Amino acid sequence: MIGFFGGSFDPIHFGHIKNAIAIKKELRLSNLFLMPCAAPVHKSELRFNTKQRLDMLNLAVQEFADLSIDTREIDRQSASYTIDSLKQIQQDYPDDKIFFIMGADSFDNIDTWKKYEQLSDYATLVVLPRVGSNQVDDKGVYFSKVPLVNISSTQIRSKIAKHQDLSGLLPDSIIHYIEQL
Question: Would the pTM of this model clear 0.85, i.e. be above it?
Fold first, then answer.
């Protein structure tokens, strides 16, 4: 059983990392891949470019060996549609049960995704808790019991813009990386 945690990771932070490690354990996954999108369709412009986001993900997986990176959406160099990635993942891993992990904020808007009703044909959807999200049981969707980590990339980007302290929100190696930009 393998998992793919999709997101923009703009930037990756302890909320992503702690949730990823916890969900890997909760679902007993053999591998958990962080899958950054190249050009998110449902978000405005990203703060960090693709190379910077990938650099930060690499720093995170160096420190947290339980995690890996899948670059298929970045390699695609076009709009990132989860349905296309899941079809490709199913072809690449035909013998594995596949889980696609997303934040509750993304799940709340899933009906705006391309062919969203087909996602569960290719993977079990796993929704991570988030403050203020609506969690309603749904067919083919697993709502994780991992503890809520109340950190958001929006909060971090705001602190970066105001030159505020980022301690405790992301690994020191990533804070140092951001300070060098």
Answer: yes
